[in-house]
Amino acid sequence: MDAPMEGDRVQIHSYKHNGNIHRVWDETTILKGTQSLVIGANDRTVVTESDGRTWITREPAICYFHSKHWFNIIGMIREDGIYYYCNISSPFIWDQEAVKYIDYDLDIKVFPDMTYILLDEDEYERHRREMKYPEPIDRILWSNVDRLIRWIRGRKGPFAPEFIDQWYERYLTYRR
Q1: Is 120 a member of any domain?
Q2: Is 80 exceeded by the pLDDT of residue 176?
Q3: What is the pLDDT of residues 75-87, one digit of tens each?
Q4: CATH number for position 121
Q5: Which of 10, 76, 77, 170 is 20 to 30 Å from 157 at the Cα level?
Q6: 90 in a structural domain
Q7: Helix/strand/coil (H, E, C) string of 113-158?
Q8: Which amino acid positions bind Mg(2+) 2, per UniProt (predicted)?
Q9: Residue 105, annotated ligand binder?
Q10: What is the domain count for the chain?
């Protein structure tokens, strides 16, 4: 697997377990791209839902994807602080077309004071039954919910002080 190159503008594709497209982010600027880690940024990018509806993101965001972790993290930069939206997902792949992952419904929203809430447990249960998530996948996903909470509490990775600000500063160099 290659990696997207720093400065490339790529799409992000989110799928569901059954292989159907879930959501597409039209343009994200790659700030770091390796086989194991992709950090990207976007601002006011078009997002297309599976039903064809579109919307535009409201604020700058730094996106963190890792090939070994079953989650990805989006740090959204707002006037009152950094909010994080964390998707429990498959590790990402890069296939020359887009950064791709499977969205497994569970999400964690993290507020600027680092409090957090787990979201969409009901959607997860419904999709787990409908799409027949295998038991090993179910265990991996819940284990990664726990890992992600440890990262939040320990201010690790994208939750570390200055992480989002530093990558946002790099992103601004591409926008000038």
Answers
A1: yes
A2: no
A3: 999 999 999 999 9
A4: 2.40.380.10
A5: 10
A6: yes
A7: CCCEEEECHHHHHHHHHHCCCCHHHHHHHHHHHHHHHHHHHHCCHH
A8: 105, 107, 120, 123
A9: yes
A10: 1
